[in-house]
Specification:
The structure is a homodimer.
Chain A lengths: L2 E6 L7 H16 L3 E6 L5 H12 L5 H25 L4 E4 L6 E3 L8 E4 L2 H8 L3 E5 L2 E3 L5 E3 L4 H13 L3 E6 L20 E3 H9 L7 H9 L4 E5 L7 E4 L12 E17 L4 H11 L4 E8 L4 E9 L3 H15 L3 E14 L9 H11 L4 E7 L2 E7 L3 H11 L8
Parallel strand pairs in A: 1-2, 1-9, 2-6, 3-6, 9-11, 10-12
Antiparallel strand pairs in A: 4-5, 7-8, 11-12, 13-15, 13-16, 14-15, 16-18, 17-18
Helix pairs in contact in A: 1-3, 2-3, 5-7, 6-7, 8-9, 10-11
C-alpha cells in the first residue's frame, strides 16, 4: 500500500463523462490498496470562458479579483469529482486551495506555494477518503485567493506529494509519457521508461510541453518521484527520477525542438566593455525574453552579436536593435524568423565524448547548414533553417539510436 | 452619509453588461457619500448550469459537494463586479462567504446564518472601499462551504445589514417595489410606499415572490430597514418597516393570490378523537405540505374534512386519502385541482371590523362562489374556482380602494 498523489489536467476532466472516468481511475487505485490524493484542473474551456468575461470588463483586470474569478474553475471540478466518487459508494472530500491551506505568496496570478498544512488531508486519508484538491490555487497570509498561473495544477500536485511525502506523484495528461521526440515529427519516436529531472527540465523548456517547468523543479527540490501517464490509455507512462545511476545508459535521452524561434544579429559593433549589456538591456526592458546568445570577436576590433527570441517578439526586437545599432555605431542589423532550434538532451552526454561532432556530422550528411550552436552540460542545441526541421530531427533520432528499444 | 447594504439578484447581474450597470449604481451611492456593502447572486442561468452537471452525475448529489459546486456562481459575480469598479477607478474588494466569515450551521443546501465577523468589512469601508460579498453562501465551523438555499442572497444582505447595523438594506430586483397585487392581473395595481413586515410575510408566503420569506423574518428579528427597488428603473421602491403607526391607514395593503392550489375533501368520517391526525399524518409522511385546513362536524356523528395542497402533489395526496378513507370508514373522497386562493392582507384589518363581510359581498356581487374560507389576524383567504381568479382579484382591488393613490 502506497500513498499516491494524482493530477488530472483540463482535457482529462473536460466533460462530466470524463470526470466520471477519472473517478473510475481513482477507484482502481483505491482497490489496489493505495491512499489517494488528487489535484485537478478546471474543465477545459472553463478558464478561457471566465477570462473572456474579465476581458469584457477590463483589458487589465485587477489581479486579486482575477484570481477570485478563475479559481472557481477548479472548484467546479473538485465538487463534481467528489460527487462522482460518492455516487459510486466511495467516500471522498473536496478542498479548495484555501480550505486545505495551500499558503502562497501574494503574487496574484503567478503565486508561489510556501507551505501546505497536510493535517486535514491525513485525517481524511485515515478515514479511507479520497482527498480531492483544487489545483492551481491557494491563499496568501491575509486569506486572499491566489492562483499559481497556467499549469499550476502540476505544481499543486507536486507540492502535495512533497508535503505528504507521497510514494509517487502521477501526472495524468493526454499523452502516455515522455517520448524521445515528438511522434508527430518522427513516427518511430519511443516512449521513455525513465528520464532524469535535469533532462526533463531541458526537454520541457525546449518545448516538450508535457509538464510545467516549475513543477519539475519543485519535484527535484523535494525528491518527489514524478510519473507522466495518459488519462485515456492504460500504461506505465514515464518515470521522472533524480537517480541518475538507474538510468538507461544511452548518451542521449531525447531530442527537443522549438519552432517558435527567431534570430537577430547586430554586425560590426565596436568592441568595448559593456557592449552585451548595451545590446540586451533595451531588449530586456521591453520584456522580451532572450534564449540563445552568441558573441564572436572579429579581427577589426568589432564584434558580431547574435541572439534568439520568441518569434512573436521578432519585429519588436528588430526595431529596438536598429535603434541600438545607431547608438553603438554598429554596421548592420540582420535577422531571420524562419529558423528552428533542435536540441539533444541527455545526462549521459557528460561522460560521452564526441556527441557534438556526431551530431554535426549527422546534420552535414543531410546537407543541413548549422546557423548557431549552443551547449550546456546535458544539452547541445543548434539553430537551423525551418525547412530542415523534420529532416534534422529524424536524422538525429536515427543517428543516436533512439528508435531502437532499450532493455 | 449612511451605511447601505445593497443586494442584486441573478437577473440584475445576468450579463457582464448588467454587472457593469450595477457598478454604476454602486458608484452613484458612493458619490452620494454613502458607505456601500453589496451582496450579489450568481449570474442568472449559472446556478442551473452547475446543477445540471451535478444531476448528470447523480440524482441526489452529495450535499456538501453540491454546495462547493454551486457556490462558485456567486464567486464569479463578486470578482467581475469588483473588476468593474476598479476599472472605473473605485476601490473595491470581493469576499466569498468563507472569506468574510459568514458562519452557518452545517445543514448543507439550506444552512442558516449564525454569525458574521464584520471586522474585515469595517476596515475596508474605512479605507473607502466598496465591499462585495457573495450572497447565498457561508461556511460552517469546520470550514466546509455551505449554501443558504434558493433566494439565500436576500438573507445574506439582511444578515450583513444586521451585523453592520446598516441604515438600510436595499434589495434590487426586476420589479420596482411591492404592489397592491400582481399588475399582470390588475393593471391598476399600485406600488406601495411602505408595507409592514407582517404584511410582507403574508404577501410573500402567498406567492408574491418579491422577497424570500426567511430574509423578511430575519430583517424583522434584527430591526433591519428593508427596501425593495428595481435594478433597471430608478425610483424609491417599497420600504418594509416594523413601525406600524407610520403606515398608510388603509385596512388592506394588498391582495395576494396563489394559482398552485388543489383541494381535497374526505366526507362522512366517523367523528372521534384523533381523526385529524389520522387524515393528515400519512399526508405529512409523504412530505406533502398542507396549506389550509377546514373541518366541519355534521349532525350525524360524522365530520367533513377539507385541506389544500400544492397542485403538483394533488394526485399523490388523493391516492393517500383514498386509502385513509377506507381505513376510517369514511363515505367518500372528493377533490378539485382547478381552484385558486385569494387573500386580503393588511395590518389595518386588526382594527377594522367588517372586512370579511365586505370581501364576501364584493365576490358575491360578481357571482363568485366561495369554496373555502380561512382567516388569520392580518389576512383573510378564500378559495374560489380558478376561472374566477382575475375577476375576483379585480373586484376586491377596487372594492377596497387599492387603485386609488394614497397621500
Amino acid at each position: 500500500m502506497a500513498l499516491i498523489v494524482q493530477k488530472y489536467g483540463g482535457t482529462s476532466v473536460g466533460t462530466v463523462e470524463k470526470i466520471e472516468n477519472v473517478a473510475e481511475r481513482l477507484i482502481a487505485a483505491k482497490k489496489e490498496g493505495h491512499d489517494v490524493v488528487v489535484a485537478v484542473s478546471a474543465m477545459s474551456g472553463e478558464t478561457n470562458r471566465l477570462v473572456e468575461m474579465a476581458h469584457q470588463i477590463s483589458d487589465k483586470p485587477d489581479p486579486r479579483e482575477y484570481d477570485v474569478l478563475v479559481s472557481t474553475g477548479e472548484q467546479v471540478t473538485i465538487a463534481l469529482l467528489a460527487m462522482a466518487l460518492k455516487q459510486r459508494g466511495y467516500d471522498a472530500r473536496s478542498y479548495t486551495g484555501s480550505q486545505v491551506h495551500i499558503l502562497t505568496d501574494s503574487a496574484h496570478t503567478k503565486a508561489r506555494i510556501l507551505d501546505i498544512d497536510e493535517a486535514n488531508i491525513r485525517a481524511d486519508l485515515d478515514k479511507g477518503r479520497v482527498v480531492i484538491v483544487a489545483g492551481f490555487q491557494g491563499k496568501d497570509e491575509h486569506g486572499n485567493i491566489t492562483t499559481l498561473g497556467r499549469g499550476g495544477s502540476d505544481t499543486t500536485a507536486v507540492a502535495l506529494a512533497a508535503a505528504l511525502k507521497a510514494d509517487e506523484c502521477q501526472i495524468y495528461t493526454d499523452v502516455d509519457g515522455v517520448y524521445t521526440t515528438d511522434p508527430r515529427v518522427v513516427p518511430d519516436a519511443r516512449r521513455l521508461e525513465k528520464i532524469t529531472f535535469e533532462e526533463m527540465l531541458e526537454m520541457a523548456s525546449l518545448g516538450s510541453k508535457v509538464l510545467q517547468i516549475r513543477s519539475v523543479e519543485f519535484a527535484g527540490k523535494y525528491n518527489v518521484k514524478l510519473r507522466v501517464l495518459s488519462s485515456f490509455v492504460d500504461g506505465p507512462g514515464t518515470l521522472i527520477t533524480f537517480e541518475e545511476d538507474n538510468m538507461e545508459q544511452a548518451a542521449i535521452s531525447g531530442i527537443a525542438f522549438n519552432r517558435d524561434e527567431a534570430k537577430l544579429t547586430i554586425l560590426g559593433v565596436p568592441d568595448q566593455p559593456g557592449v552585451a549589456y548595451n545590446i540586451l538591456g533595451s531588449i530586456g526592458e521591453a520584456n522580451i525574453e532572450v534564449d540563445m546568445i552568441i558573441q564572436n570577436v572579429g579581427d577589426d576590433g568589432t564584434t558580431d552579436f547574435t541572439f534568439t527570441v520568441h518569434r512573436n517578439d521578432y519585429q519588436h526586437a528588430l526595431d529596438i536593435l536598429n535603434n541600438t545599432a545607431k547608438e553603438l555605431n554598429a554596421r548592420e542589423v540582420v535577422g531571420d524568423n524562419a529558423i528552428v532550434k533542435i536540441s539533444l538532451v541527455g545526462v549521459g552526454m557528460r561522460s560521452h565524448a564526441g556527441i557534438a561532432s556526431q551530431m554535426f556530422k549527422a546534420l552535414a550528411d543531410e546537407g543541413i547548414n548549422i546557423r548557431m550552436i549552443s551547449t550546456s552540460e546535458i544539452k547541445i542545441s543548434v539553430v537551423i533553417d525551418e525547412k530542415y526541421l523534420e529532416l534534422g530531427v529524424r536524422a538525429l533520432h536515427s543517428a543516436f539510436g533512439l528508435d531502437e528499444p532499450k532493455d
